[in-house]
Design brief:
Rossmann fold; globular; single chain; 8-stranded mixed beta sheet; 253 residues; alpha/beta; Alpha/beta hydrolase; 9 helices; 10 strands; AB_hydrolase_sf; Hydrolase_4; hydrolase activity
Length: 253
């Protein structure tokens, strides 16, 4: 694994880990809300397994997260970050692309679809609008701070930073999403994995199911019984499902 940095269009330095393999196929992994390139160890594990199977892998911190430069986060900024990660992959000689996203990283993957993205693996993805109150337990004081100052501070248990600054725009970003336009713009098969436990994961699964007819041909929805939004007790299953999916839809070249 190589520690790397690259710039987004705003000139911010983004930190990442590049797992090199002898191919020109890469899986770009995008973390969720208030997380980082490790994704609580999930991405570290999956990236190593994918590398062992011949895939290059890039994990990265969106701006304002992990080791990347500070900025108040909102969705459009993170869109530019994923696009920058893909451009960086081009500079490393990559020619074939797949996305792997968790939670909000799933929405980012869908939003950043391009014609050279061959497939996606999405775990607990945000595939439509969801009230921000359901995403995290925002206190009244935090929301008031956000309304007054245009941002709020989250204190996080992260090896690289103690706080993440949330732009007020992010609250609206959760509440408003054109689900039909987003999904109908994607034209590659997707493996969508949801769990059955926890209010957040159940709601996200219902949002996905209601839009099942909008997903591209070849998409598969898997529900893991007993899994909550973290999927921490189902990592073996996700690793197997994801690897088999990539073997079938994203051959190593």
């Amino acid at each position: 694994m190589e520690r790397i940095t690259f710039k987004n269009e705003a000139g911010l330095s983004l930190a990442g880990h590049f797992y090199a393999a002898p191919s020109k196929s890469i899986v770009i992994m995008t973390h969720g809300f208030l997380s980082n390139k490790s994704s609580s160890g999930r991405f570290d594990r999956f990236a190593l397994k994918l590398q062992q199977n011949g895939y290059n892998v890039l994990t990265y911190d969106c701006g304002g997260y992990g080791e990347s430069d500070d900025t108040a986060i909102h969705f459009d900024k993170q869109v530019t970050d994923l696009k920058a990660a893909k451009e960086y992959s081009h500079t490393r000689g990559m020619e074939r692309f797949a996305y792997w996203g968790h939670s909000l990283g799933g929405r980012l993957s869908l939003t950043c679809y391009d014609k050279d993205i061959e497939t996606m693996v999405l775990t607990g993805p945000v595939t439509g609008a969801i009230s921000y109150q359901h995403v995290d337990d925002f206190s009244k004081e935090q929301v008031a701070q956000c309304e007054c100052n245009g941002s709020m501070v989250f204190y996080v248990d992260d090896p690289w930073r103690s706080e993440i600054v949330l732009d007020k725009q992010m609250l609206d970003d959760f509440d408003y999403m054109d689900q039909a336009a987003t999904l109908q713009s994607v034209h590659c098969p997707i493996l969508v994995i949801h769990g059955t436990e926890g209010d957040l994961e159940r709601e996200l699964a219902q949002i996905t199911k209601k839009a099942a007819h909008l997903f591209p041909t070849g998409t598969k929805l898997v529900e893991l019984d007993g899994a909550d939004h973290s999927f921490m007790n189902q990592l073996d299953e996700i690793e197997i499902l994801g690897l088999h999916w990539l073997h079938d839809h994203f051959s190593v070249r």
